[in-house]
């Protein structure tokens, strides 16, 4: 569905994407993760055939976006990060008029609108103005609109940003059903739990390059441990710094990360780590053992500092 070989994107002297190789296969959910400025949005715009490639080779649905842009865009669905709905129109007309842009006959558009309103659970809001919808409803309507042309490939840029947990889970369920129906999904997200839930494979981008690729489980196995023991000692516990405390437990895991409020000890047996911490006479105020997550991998690969 997507084949990128050495793809680059430059804006003047600034190189946003520095030569990436990506393959996305039919029917899978593929994720692009990365901090702000990593090159995700530039990559998505090239895949959407709205931004030309500066170098390398890109094929979308087997076609060259530099030559076959209109044909590619006709088979894509795009859900942008910000809702771009027509506030002057009601829910149904938002879908109907957008469908007519694709040249779909009136009767067929009307039938597809009915199907999509059912799919995104907005039948009872068909005559409502967009302004009256909740954030979750607007996102579902935006996704419905992106499906009006029955795309082979659906691009989703931060699909659940700003939504409450209930709305996020409803959207996840809709997207999972789309994947089951054979639609290929390409997702960018800052929510690591979302990437774990939705993505079959993903890449982590940083500073215009791909720094890791694989399934969520594979990436966790490659770049982290099975469990993480979180030790909270409080500020200046026992008159010691967190760096000093970290030295005392450094041999208990594969690595120890020092945070302002706690130590993270990465190990395959978090309970054993905590037992040995107590054996050494250390008394953390609170402890927690959890499994390693994609967020642990993401922060290890891209760092914890903010990117301007």
From TrEMBL:
Keywords on record: ATP-binding, Nucleotide-binding
Domain ABC transporter residues, every copy: 2-232
Gene Ontology MF terms in the entry: ATP binding
SMART domains reported in the protein's UniProt record: AAA
Pfam families in the cross-refs: ABC_tran
Name of protein: ATP-binding cassette domain-containing protein
